[in-house]
Every structure is written in C-alpha cells, then in structure tokens.
From TrEMBL:
Signal peptide: none annotated. It comes from the Eukaryota. Keywords: Oxidoreductase. Coiled coil: none annotated. This is NAD(P)-binding protein. The keyword Electron transport does not apply. Gene3D superfamilies: NAD(P)-binding Rossmann-like Domain. One of its GO terms (molecular function) is oxidoreductase activity. InterPro entries: NAD(P)-bd_dom_sf.
C-alpha cells in the first residue's frame, strides 16, 4: 500500500485508540471488475492474465473477515491482505515523517481558494 494513506491510518490508530476505535487497512487484491476497461495497460493485463485476478467475492473476503473476527484476534492499525497481516514500509512508523506529511497537507489545504 502507498505510504501516505498508511501514515494517515497510523495517525487514526494513535488518535482514536483512547476511544477503543480499531482501524485496519485492507488490500483486496486485484479484483475483476469493469473498472479496468478504461485503462489500456490494465485492460491488456486483465485480458491476458485473467487467472491472476480475484472475483469480487474473493476480493471482499478480507474485509468480511475483519468485520466479523473478534478484535482481540486482530492487530489494530495493521495492513491486511488475504486475511493476514502483511509487512509495511518502516517510514509508516516514523513519527517525524508523519508529522511533516500532516503539516505539508494542512498547508496545501490553506492554499485552496
């Protein structure tokens, strides 16, 4: 997963843990949907490698798993793929980088007319 969204999720975990709110990131995999018909590269991949894609049902399994599993069996703030926690980039845990990102983003919003 991209670093910026994961840092935002990490920030949610820190800010909402006091309220016992759990946050999980999910990668559904590459799911077979009509979305790819508008992108030449993706559409070509889908046509030639359909076996590599998941059905919508298969793509939703991790989300359903996280919704139904007991919280004590899950890791708050982690990134899940195929119902398992997967490793993430160490920059996600870097508080200084996360703070810089938040400040940079705030400044971008201040520039919007």
């Amino acid at each position: 997963m991209k670093i910026i969204p994961r840092q935002v999720f990490k920030n949610f975990v820190i800010n909402f843990s006091l309220y016992e709110i759990k946050v999980y990131s999910v990668h559904p995999g590459v799911v077979r949907t009509p979305l790819y018909k508008y992108d030449f590269f993706s559409n070509t991949f889908v046509k030639f490698f359909p076996i590599a894609l998941k059905s919508p049902k298969e793509g939703s399994l991790t989300t359903v798993y996280l919704a139904l599993e007991k919280c004590e069996n899950l890791s708050n703030g982690e990134y899940y793929f195929d119902c398992e926690v997967v490793p993430h980039n160490p920059l996600i845990d870097n508080k200084e980088v996360r703070s810089q990102l938040i400040e940079y983003t705030k400044n971008l919003f201040l520039k919007i007319p």
